[in-house]
Amino acid sequence: MTDSRFYRPSKKTFKLAVKKLNDGDILSFPTETVYGLGADATNNTAVAKIFSAKNRPIFNPLIVHVSDTINAKRYVIMNTLAQKLASNFWPGPFTMVLPVKKNNGLSDFITAGLDTVAVRVPKHKVAQELLHIFDGPIAAPSANKSGKISPTTAAHVDSEFFDELDMIIDGGVCEKGLESTIIQINENGIILLRPGSITQEDIEKIAGQSVKMNELQSGSPISPGQLKSHYAPNARMRLNVLTPKPGEAYLAFGHNIETLNSLNLSPTRNLIEAAANLFSMMRALDHLKIEIIAVAPIPAVGLGVAINDRLERAAAAKGPIE
Ligand code: TXA
Ligand code: MG
Protein backbone atom coordinates (compact mmCIF):
# COMPACT_ATOMS: atom_id res chain seq x y z
CA MET A 1 0.00 0.00 0.00
CA THR A 2 1.49 3.33 -1.08
CA ASP A 3 0.32 5.26 1.97
CA SER A 4 2.40 3.18 4.31
CA ARG A 5 5.53 4.94 3.11
CA PHE A 6 4.33 8.34 4.40
CA TYR A 7 4.77 9.24 8.06
CA ARG A 8 3.35 12.30 9.81
CA PRO A 9 5.89 13.83 12.23
CA SER A 10 5.24 12.39 15.71
CA LYS A 11 7.25 10.95 18.58
CA LYS A 12 6.70 7.49 17.18
CA THR A 13 7.82 8.57 13.71
CA PHE A 14 11.04 10.12 14.98
CA LYS A 15 11.79 7.03 17.05
CA LEU A 16 11.39 4.83 14.00
CA ALA A 17 13.38 7.25 11.83
CA VAL A 18 16.30 7.23 14.26
CA LYS A 19 16.19 3.44 14.42
CA LYS A 20 16.38 3.34 10.65
CA LEU A 21 19.35 5.70 10.59
CA ASN A 22 21.10 3.65 13.26
CA ASP A 23 20.39 0.48 11.29
CA GLY A 24 22.09 1.98 8.22
CA ASP A 25 18.89 2.57 6.25
CA ILE A 26 17.90 5.61 4.21
CA LEU A 27 14.78 7.74 4.60
CA SER A 28 13.41 11.01 3.29
CA PHE A 29 12.74 14.06 5.43
CA PRO A 30 11.70 17.64 4.72
CA THR A 31 13.88 20.71 5.03
CA GLU A 32 12.80 24.28 4.32
CA THR A 33 14.49 24.07 0.90
CA VAL A 34 13.63 20.66 -0.58
CA TYR A 35 13.17 17.10 0.72
CA GLY A 36 16.39 15.25 1.49
CA LEU A 37 17.33 11.58 1.20
CA GLY A 38 19.11 10.99 4.48
CA ALA A 39 21.54 8.49 5.94
CA ASP A 40 23.93 8.32 8.89
CA ALA A 41 26.89 10.29 7.52
CA THR A 42 29.36 8.14 9.46
CA ASN A 43 28.13 4.85 8.01
CA ASN A 44 29.72 3.85 4.68
CA THR A 45 27.11 1.27 3.78
CA ALA A 46 24.26 3.65 4.56
CA VAL A 47 25.79 6.47 2.52
CA ALA A 48 26.42 4.07 -0.35
CA LYS A 49 22.68 3.33 -0.36
CA ILE A 50 22.01 7.01 -1.13
CA PHE A 51 24.26 6.91 -4.19
CA SER A 52 22.69 3.72 -5.37
CA ALA A 53 19.06 4.87 -4.87
CA LYS A 54 19.70 8.17 -6.66
CA ASN A 55 21.94 6.71 -9.40
CA ARG A 56 24.30 9.42 -8.29
CA PRO A 57 27.83 9.43 -9.69
CA ILE A 58 30.27 8.53 -6.96
CA PHE A 59 32.40 11.64 -7.63
CA ASN A 60 29.58 13.91 -6.46
CA PRO A 61 30.01 14.71 -2.73
CA LEU A 62 27.13 15.07 -0.25
CA ILE A 63 26.02 17.78 2.17
CA VAL A 64 26.32 16.87 5.85
CA HIS A 65 23.42 18.16 7.94
CA VAL A 66 24.02 18.97 11.58
CA SER A 67 21.84 20.46 14.32
CA ASP A 68 24.00 23.51 15.06
CA THR A 69 27.36 25.24 14.59
CA ILE A 70 28.98 23.40 17.50
CA ASN A 71 28.30 20.11 15.77
CA ALA A 72 29.47 21.50 12.41
CA LYS A 73 32.84 22.19 14.03
CA ARG A 74 33.30 18.50 14.69
CA TYR A 75 33.73 17.98 10.95
CA VAL A 76 35.04 21.21 9.42
CA ILE A 77 37.43 24.02 10.29
CA MET A 78 35.51 27.27 10.69
CA ASN A 79 37.49 30.50 10.48
CA THR A 80 36.13 33.83 11.74
CA LEU A 81 34.38 34.52 8.46
CA ALA A 82 32.68 31.10 8.42
CA GLN A 83 31.54 31.63 12.01
CA LYS A 84 30.14 35.03 11.18
CA LEU A 85 28.16 33.65 8.24
CA ALA A 86 27.00 30.72 10.37
CA SER A 87 25.69 32.97 13.11
CA ASN A 88 23.72 34.97 10.55
CA PHE A 89 22.42 32.27 8.21
CA TRP A 90 22.17 29.13 10.35
CA PRO A 91 19.79 27.53 10.84
CA GLY A 92 18.61 28.17 7.30
CA PRO A 93 18.89 27.49 3.56
CA PHE A 94 22.66 27.95 3.58
CA THR A 95 25.51 25.48 3.03
CA MET A 96 29.23 26.11 3.49
CA VAL A 97 32.01 24.11 1.88
CA LEU A 98 34.87 24.22 4.38
CA PRO A 99 38.18 22.42 5.01
CA VAL A 100 37.51 19.01 6.47
CA LYS A 101 38.92 18.10 9.88
CA LYS A 102 41.18 15.08 10.16
CA ASN A 103 39.74 11.94 11.76
CA ASN A 104 36.25 13.30 11.39
CA GLY A 105 34.57 9.91 11.35
CA LEU A 106 32.55 10.71 8.22
CA SER A 107 32.11 8.15 5.48
CA ASP A 108 34.64 8.56 2.66
CA PHE A 109 31.75 8.77 0.20
CA ILE A 110 30.79 12.13 1.68
CA THR A 111 33.83 14.01 0.45
CA ALA A 112 34.33 12.08 -2.78
CA GLY A 113 38.06 12.52 -2.28
CA LEU A 114 37.99 16.29 -1.75
CA ASP A 115 39.63 17.95 1.27
CA THR A 116 36.44 19.87 2.01
CA VAL A 117 33.01 19.05 3.36
CA ALA A 118 29.73 20.84 2.69
CA VAL A 119 27.83 21.46 5.95
CA ARG A 120 24.35 22.80 6.54
CA VAL A 121 22.17 23.48 9.60
CA PRO A 122 18.58 23.30 8.32
CA LYS A 123 15.82 25.26 10.02
CA HIS A 124 12.79 23.05 9.30
CA LYS A 125 11.26 21.76 12.53
CA VAL A 126 11.24 18.15 11.31
CA ALA A 127 14.87 18.25 10.18
CA GLN A 128 15.92 19.87 13.46
CA GLU A 129 14.01 17.34 15.54
CA LEU A 130 15.47 14.44 13.58
CA LEU A 131 19.02 15.78 13.95
CA HIS A 132 18.54 16.32 17.68
CA ILE A 133 17.10 12.90 18.41
CA PHE A 134 19.53 11.08 16.12
CA ASP A 135 22.34 13.10 17.69
CA GLY A 136 24.70 12.73 14.75
CA PRO A 137 25.43 14.01 11.24
CA ILE A 138 22.97 13.18 8.46
CA ALA A 139 24.17 13.07 4.86
CA ALA A 140 21.39 14.19 2.55
CA PRO A 141 21.20 15.12 -1.09
CA SER A 142 17.89 16.23 -2.56
CA ALA A 143 15.51 13.25 -2.71
CA ASN A 144 15.30 12.92 -6.49
CA LYS A 145 16.99 10.68 -9.03
CA SER A 146 20.30 12.17 -10.11
CA GLY A 147 19.84 14.98 -12.65
CA LYS A 148 16.09 15.28 -12.10
CA ILE A 149 13.89 17.94 -10.51
CA SER A 150 14.24 18.32 -6.73
CA PRO A 151 11.18 17.37 -4.62
CA THR A 152 9.23 19.96 -2.64
CA THR A 153 6.50 17.61 -1.36
CA ALA A 154 6.44 14.10 0.09
CA ALA A 155 4.44 12.96 -2.94
CA HIS A 156 7.22 14.16 -5.28
CA VAL A 157 9.69 12.02 -3.34
CA ASP A 158 7.43 9.00 -3.53
CA SER A 159 7.00 9.42 -7.28
CA GLU A 160 10.80 9.23 -7.71
CA PHE A 161 11.50 6.18 -5.61
CA PHE A 162 8.33 4.10 -5.09
CA ASP A 163 9.38 0.79 -3.51
CA GLU A 164 13.03 1.79 -3.22
CA LEU A 165 12.22 3.96 -0.23
CA ASP A 166 9.99 2.87 2.63
CA MET A 167 9.98 5.95 4.87
CA ILE A 168 9.12 9.52 3.92
CA ILE A 169 8.45 11.93 6.76
CA ASP A 170 5.73 14.19 5.41
CA GLY A 171 6.29 17.77 6.56
CA GLY A 172 4.09 19.36 3.91
CA VAL A 173 5.29 21.71 1.17
CA CYS A 174 8.85 23.06 1.46
CA GLU A 175 8.75 26.77 2.21
CA LYS A 176 11.67 27.91 0.03
CA GLY A 177 11.35 25.42 -2.81
CA LEU A 178 14.92 25.82 -4.11
CA GLU A 179 17.97 24.01 -2.74
CA SER A 180 20.22 25.83 -0.29
CA THR A 181 22.70 28.47 -1.32
CA ILE A 182 26.19 26.93 -1.35
CA ILE A 183 29.36 28.90 -0.81
CA GLN A 184 32.96 27.85 -0.47
CA ILE A 185 35.42 29.78 1.66
CA ASN A 186 39.06 29.40 0.67
CA GLU A 187 42.21 31.46 0.13
CA ASN A 188 40.49 33.23 -2.78
CA GLY A 189 37.70 34.48 -0.54
CA ILE A 190 34.05 33.48 -0.87
CA ILE A 191 32.86 31.67 -3.96
CA LEU A 192 29.17 31.16 -4.69
CA LEU A 193 28.84 27.56 -5.88
CA ARG A 194 25.05 27.46 -6.07
CA PRO A 195 22.71 30.46 -5.82
CA GLY A 196 19.70 30.08 -3.53
CA SER A 197 17.38 32.07 -1.33
CA ILE A 198 20.26 33.54 0.68
CA THR A 199 21.49 35.79 -2.13
CA GLN A 200 24.94 37.01 -3.11
CA GLU A 201 24.01 40.45 -1.74
CA ASP A 202 22.84 38.96 1.58
CA ILE A 203 26.21 37.23 2.00
CA GLU A 204 28.26 40.27 0.94
CA LYS A 205 26.43 42.45 3.44
CA ILE A 206 27.36 40.18 6.34
CA ALA A 207 30.84 39.22 5.11
CA GLY A 208 31.88 42.77 4.25
CA GLN A 209 33.58 41.47 1.11
CA SER A 210 32.63 40.54 -2.40
CA VAL A 211 31.38 37.07 -3.28
CA LYS A 212 32.72 35.63 -6.52
CA MET A 213 30.46 33.68 -8.82
CA ASN A 214 31.59 30.14 -9.57
CA GLU A 215 32.68 29.89 -13.17
CA LEU A 216 31.09 26.84 -14.72
CA GLN A 217 34.03 25.31 -16.53
CA SER A 218 33.38 22.47 -18.88
CA GLY A 219 36.26 20.56 -17.28
CA SER A 220 35.82 20.21 -13.55
CA PRO A 221 33.49 22.52 -11.71
CA ILE A 222 34.45 23.18 -8.06
CA SER A 223 31.05 21.89 -7.09
CA PRO A 224 31.04 18.53 -8.81
CA GLY A 225 27.26 18.26 -8.78
CA GLN A 226 26.78 21.62 -10.40
CA LEU A 227 26.75 20.17 -13.85
CA LYS A 228 25.44 22.29 -16.63
CA SER A 229 22.47 20.03 -17.15
CA HIS A 230 20.29 19.27 -14.13
CA TYR A 231 16.69 19.53 -12.93
CA ALA A 232 15.74 17.90 -16.20
CA PRO A 233 12.07 17.53 -17.05
CA ASN A 234 11.09 15.18 -19.88
CA ALA A 235 9.87 18.12 -21.94
CA ARG A 236 12.25 20.57 -23.58
CA MET A 237 12.36 24.03 -22.06
CA ARG A 238 12.27 27.32 -23.94
CA LEU A 239 13.24 30.26 -21.74
CA ASN A 240 12.47 34.00 -21.76
CA VAL A 241 9.30 33.54 -23.76
CA LEU A 242 6.69 36.29 -23.73
CA THR A 243 4.26 34.58 -26.08
CA PRO A 244 4.16 30.79 -26.15
CA LYS A 245 3.61 29.06 -29.47
CA PRO A 246 0.47 27.01 -30.06
CA GLY A 247 0.81 23.63 -28.40
CA GLU A 248 3.46 24.70 -25.92
CA ALA A 249 2.85 24.56 -22.17
CA TYR A 250 3.59 27.86 -20.44
CA LEU A 251 5.11 28.75 -17.11
CA ALA A 252 4.08 32.36 -16.61
CA PHE A 253 5.40 34.99 -14.23
CA GLY A 254 3.04 37.85 -13.48
CA HIS A 255 1.16 38.53 -16.65
CA ASN A 256 -1.04 35.55 -17.44
CA ILE A 257 -1.19 34.25 -20.97
CA GLU A 258 -4.40 32.63 -22.08
CA THR A 259 -3.11 29.26 -23.11
CA LEU A 260 -4.61 25.96 -22.27
CA ASN A 261 -1.71 24.51 -20.35
CA SER A 262 -0.38 27.36 -18.31
CA LEU A 263 0.64 27.81 -14.69
CA ASN A 264 1.69 31.07 -13.10
CA LEU A 265 4.78 31.09 -10.86
CA SER A 266 3.54 34.27 -9.24
CA PRO A 267 0.64 36.40 -10.51
CA THR A 268 1.99 39.33 -8.44
CA ARG A 269 5.59 38.86 -9.69
CA ASN A 270 6.82 37.89 -6.25
CA LEU A 271 10.16 36.05 -6.57
CA ILE A 272 9.80 34.29 -3.21
CA GLU A 273 6.51 32.82 -4.33
CA ALA A 274 7.95 31.96 -7.75
CA ALA A 275 10.89 30.09 -6.17
CA ALA A 276 8.55 28.13 -3.92
CA ASN A 277 6.40 27.13 -6.91
CA LEU A 278 9.11 26.51 -9.50
CA PHE A 279 9.84 22.79 -9.13
CA SER A 280 6.28 21.67 -8.45
CA MET A 281 4.96 23.63 -11.45
CA MET A 282 7.73 22.27 -13.68
CA ARG A 283 6.69 18.78 -12.59
CA ALA A 284 2.99 19.51 -13.13
CA LEU A 285 3.52 20.82 -16.67
CA ASP A 286 5.86 17.96 -17.44
CA HIS A 287 3.11 15.50 -16.48
CA LEU A 288 1.04 16.82 -19.37
CA LYS A 289 3.57 15.16 -21.66
CA ILE A 290 3.77 18.23 -23.86
CA GLU A 291 6.91 18.50 -25.95
CA ILE A 292 7.92 22.02 -24.96
CA ILE A 293 7.48 24.06 -21.80
CA ALA A 294 7.95 27.75 -22.53
CA VAL A 295 8.92 29.90 -19.56
CA ALA A 296 8.38 33.62 -19.01
CA PRO A 297 11.40 35.86 -18.39
CA ILE A 298 12.30 36.06 -14.71
CA PRO A 299 14.24 39.14 -13.62
CA ALA A 300 17.82 38.09 -12.76
CA VAL A 301 17.99 40.04 -9.52
CA GLY A 302 18.00 38.80 -5.92
CA LEU A 303 16.29 35.44 -5.73
CA GLY A 304 15.72 35.63 -9.49
CA VAL A 305 19.39 34.65 -9.95
CA ALA A 306 18.75 31.28 -8.31
CA ILE A 307 15.51 30.74 -10.26
CA ASN A 308 17.26 31.47 -13.56
CA ASP A 309 20.14 29.17 -12.58
CA ARG A 310 17.71 26.24 -12.14
CA LEU A 311 15.82 27.09 -15.34
CA GLU A 312 19.00 27.31 -17.41
CA ARG A 313 20.20 23.93 -16.18
CA ALA A 314 16.78 22.41 -16.81
CA ALA A 315 16.82 23.83 -20.35
CA ALA A 316 20.39 22.63 -20.96
CA ALA A 317 19.34 19.04 -20.36
CA LYS A 318 17.92 18.52 -23.82
CA GLY A 319 19.82 21.20 -25.70
CA PRO A 320 18.64 24.43 -27.30
CA ILE A 321 15.43 24.75 -29.33
CA GLU A 322 15.84 26.78 -32.43
O1 TXA B 1 18.86 22.40 0.07
C1 TXA B 1 19.75 21.55 -0.04
O2 TXA B 1 20.95 21.84 -0.06
C2 TXA B 1 19.30 20.09 -0.11
C3 TXA B 1 18.73 19.70 1.23
C4 TXA B 1 18.31 18.26 1.32
O3 TXA B 1 19.65 20.00 2.24
N1 TXA B 1 20.40 19.24 -0.47
C5 TXA B 1 20.95 19.25 -1.70
O4 TXA B 1 21.96 18.32 -1.88
O5 TXA B 1 20.60 20.02 -2.57
P1 TXA B 1 22.46 17.87 -3.33
O6 TXA B 1 23.37 16.73 -3.10
O7 TXA B 1 21.31 17.64 -4.20
O8 TXA B 1 23.29 19.10 -3.79
C6 TXA B 1 24.48 19.40 -3.11
C7 TXA B 1 25.47 20.04 -4.00
C8 TXA B 1 25.96 19.15 -5.12
O9 TXA B 1 25.99 19.93 -6.29
C9 TXA B 1 27.37 18.77 -4.67
O10 TXA B 1 28.24 18.57 -5.76
C10 TXA B 1 27.77 19.97 -3.88
O11 TXA B 1 26.61 20.36 -3.20
N2 TXA B 1 28.81 19.64 -2.88
C11 TXA B 1 28.71 18.80 -1.85
N3 TXA B 1 29.88 18.71 -1.19
C12 TXA B 1 30.74 19.55 -1.82
C13 TXA B 1 32.11 19.90 -1.62
N4 TXA B 1 32.85 19.37 -0.65
N5 TXA B 1 32.67 20.77 -2.49
C14 TXA B 1 31.93 21.32 -3.49
N6 TXA B 1 30.64 21.02 -3.72
C15 TXA B 1 30.05 20.14 -2.90
MG1 MG C 1 20.23 17.70 -5.86
Approximate shape? globular
Strand order of the largest sheet: 2-3-7-4-6-5-9-10-11
CATH superfamily of the largest domain: DHBP synthase
The rounded Rg comes to 19 Å
Main sheet overview: 9 strands, mixed
Q: What is the CATH topology classification name of the largest domain? A: DHBP synthase
> So how many helices?
10
Low-confidence stretches: 217-221
CATH architecture of the largest domain: Alpha-Beta Complex
Counted beta strands: 15
CATH class call of the largest domain: Alpha Beta
Average pLDDT across residues? 92
The ligands bound in this entry are: threonylcarbamoyladenylate, magnesium ion
Quote the distance from N terminus to C terminus: 45 Å
Encode the helix/strand succession as letters: EHEEHEHHEHEHEHEEEHEEEEHEH
Q: Beta fraction of the residues?
A: 15-25%
The helix fraction, in percent, is: 25-40%
Structural class by helix and strand composition: alpha/beta
What is the count of distinct domains? 2
Keyword list:
DHBP synthase; Rossmann fold; nine-stranded mixed β-sheet; 10 helices; binds threonylcarbamoyladenylate; binds magnesium ion
Provide structural commentary.
It is built from ten helices and 15 strands. The chain is α/β, with parallel strands linked by helices and 322 residues long. It folds into two domains: 6-213, DHBP synthase; 236-316, Rossmann fold. Strands 2-3-7-4-6-5-9-10-11 form a nine-stranded mixed β-sheet, with helices on both faces. Strands 12-15-13-14 form a four-stranded parallel β-sheet. The chain has a two-stranded parallel sheet with strand order 1-8. Helix 1 (11-22) packs across helix 6 and helix 9 (271-287) runs parallel beside helix 10. The termini are far apart. The structure holds threonylcarbamoyladenylate (TXA) and magnesium ion. Residues 141-142, 150, 179 line the site of magnesium ion.
